[in-house]
TrEMBL record:
This is Cellulase family glycosylhydrolase. It comes from the Bacteria. Residues 60-217 form the Glycoside hydrolase family domain. It comes from Pedobacter albus. The keyword Aminoacyl-tRNA synthetase does not apply. It holds the Pfam family Cellulase. Keywords: Glycosidase, Hydrolase. Belongs to the glycosyl hydrolase 5 (cellulase A) family.
């Protein structure tokens, strides 16, 4: 399970924030789930505020998702001392915790039009994370090949290679073959967008064959609205013709039972 943290939640209540992480890890351990935590994120809404969050916009994918530390906040070096304290505190508290799989330092660096402007913060985050000496691996997931400078930094500083691909099988396989040259463990930390022909039925068997770990995006139809596609909102908030992400309806029944049966089969679950 890949779990996104947020620096403002830590800033508001550092002790309570860490208590909730510990509680969450205890729940995960009971269910034999080992999560990776994501520190920063360049995706979606540019500004964040503490406190009660807006309700989701009907039919809009990730309408409430927040960048961290935001824009232009991520470009302002005056924020670095606070962000360093945040990263250091979390890694000092959980960097030796066996219940944590690894640390994903920045989700999709350069997204939302940031491009190479995110490099100064990313290089500092890498420095802060290494200085904290966590026992778990660190990673920065690859996601866009045109960002060559960022890609080079991400690969050079990832103990485990992680990447995102919402492409159909032939393009996804090319990505895997390219990343195999680094001779490191590989985990696909985002895939599965049905309307782009990235499906459990055609991608998950490929990942298993290639010995690549797999974390799809989306689980339950909920307030993230990720059953709707990125660029195809449904203004009424009604059911899309085909779900983009997500596996279960709100009542716990599968969107498509053949998908959950395949997931169980490929993971050797009864």
């Amino acid at each position: 399970m890949r779990v996104f943290l947020h620096s403002l939640a830590w800033k508001q209540d550092p002790k309570g924030f860490k208590t909730r992480i510990d509680q969450f890890l205890a729940i995960c351990a009971r269910h034999k789930i080992v999560p990776m935590f994501v520190f920063f994120d360049d995706c979606w809404n540019k500004t964040a505020l503490e406190g009660k969050q807006p309700i989701p916009k009907p039919g809009v994918h990730n309408s409430g998702w927040l960048q961290d530390p935001g824009d232009p906040a991520s470009k302002e070096s005056l924020n670095y001392p606070f962000l360093e304290k945040y990263v250091t505190d979390i890694l000092s508290s959980f960097g030796k915790d066996k219940r944590v799989l690894m640390w994903d330092l920045n989700n999709e660096p350069g997204n939302s039009g940031k491009g190479d402007s995110t490099i100064p913060l990313l290089t500092n985050v890498i420095k802060w994370a290494r200085a904290a000496r966590p026992e778990q691996p660190i990673t920065i997931g690859l996601w866009r090949w045109e960002l060559e400078k960022l890609n080079a930094i991400q690969v050079a500083n990832s103990d485990v290679i992680t990447y995102h691909s919402y492409e159909e099988p032939n393009w996804h396989e090319r990505t895997i073959n390219l990343l195999k040259i680094y001779d490191r463990p590989i985990i696909c930390t985002e895939y599965m967008a049905r309307t782009r022909n990235s499906r459990f039925s055609n991608i998950l068997p490929l990942l298993k064959k290639k010995n690549v770990g797999a974390i799809n995006w989306g689980f339950v139809d909920g307030k993230t609205n990720t059953k709707y596609a990125w660029d195809t909102p449904v203004a009424s908030g009604g059911e899309p013709a085909e779900w983009f992400h997500d596996i279960f309806r709100q009542d716990g029944t599968p969107y498509r039972r053949e998908e959950t049966e395949l997931i169980r089969k490929l993971n050797a679950r009864p």
